Amino acid sequence: MLTVNNVTKKYKNFLANDNLSFKIEDGEVGILLGPNGAGKSTIIKSINGLLRYNGTIEINGVDNRSLEAKRQLGYIPEIPALYDTLTVAEHMEFIRRAYKIEDVDIADKLLERFELADKKKKMGKELSKGMQQKVSICCALVHNPSVVIFDEPMVGLDPHAIKELKQLFRELKAEGKTVLISTHMIDTIEDYWDVAHIMMHGKIAATKHNRGDEDEKSLDELFFEITEGTPEEA
Ligand code: ADP
Questions:
Q1: Among 89, 108, 144, 161, who pairs with 120 as Cys (CB 3.0-4.6 Å)?
Q2: What is this structure's pTM?
Q3: What's the total number of domains in the chain?
């Protein structure tokens, strides 16, 4: 479970996150949807303990900056940050040891799952963006986190990789994990989400639950209404 309570983040005088509050339960996929500059990466970096902010963020009920929370958190950044000269296998070994995970087979299991078993000896710099992202995902899952966060995961991926990623979201959800995905690409959102928060100018402008309620506006309608404004405003 992920809980964000009254989080405000300023860069000097610029308010990038303005009193954000939301919650994602176990087995739920949450989406942060919004145009570039809305503040999505800022809240994601705060959740991951990479920024200072005002407010509270909890991972399964504990402060996100505690070691206990970090052990339960997996983060896939927008740009995969691999080591140029470490092989895929060495990346996995490094992370496994950093988290003191005793299951030595975990790396092979993940690499099999992501069809990377034949790339074990390739170095970070030799991999395509799609492959690098898969390695980044494997690294983020080595310690079997219960809360998994993806920042703009679809950017730069080909349609096959996007399809695989959507399958992964569904699998994580089925395993009871808490998943948070930030994206500005509304056309990549299918039926795998439970709750979507539309962000604009650092605030949550609207929240929609995926209950298939035909009386409600669709996520598309809501998104374009908020981001494009009414005809007069546009
Ligand atoms: P998004 O992920 O939705 O594109 P960001 O969280 O990256 O949005 O950025 C929100 C706003 O904060 C943008 O206007 C951006 O220019 C600004 N911003 C982001 N990082 C910094 C920073 N380190 N210093 C100053 N302004 C920043």
A1: 89
A2: 0.93
A3: 2
Distance from first CA to last CA of the chain, Å, rounded? 38
* Domain shared by 151 and 233, yes or no: yes
| Ligand 1 atom nearest 14 alpha carbon | 26
Using most ligand atoms within 8 A of CB, pick from 42, 44, 198 the residue to mutate for ligand 1.
42
> Residue 20 sits in which domain range?
1-72+145-157+165-234
Q: How many CB atoms lie within 10 A of CB 21?
A: 13
Confidence (pLDDT) at 160: 84
> Which residue has its alpha carbon closest to ligand 1 atom 23?
11
* Residue-wise pLDDT tens digits, 122-164: 999 999 888 999 999 999 999 999 999 999 998 888 888 888 8
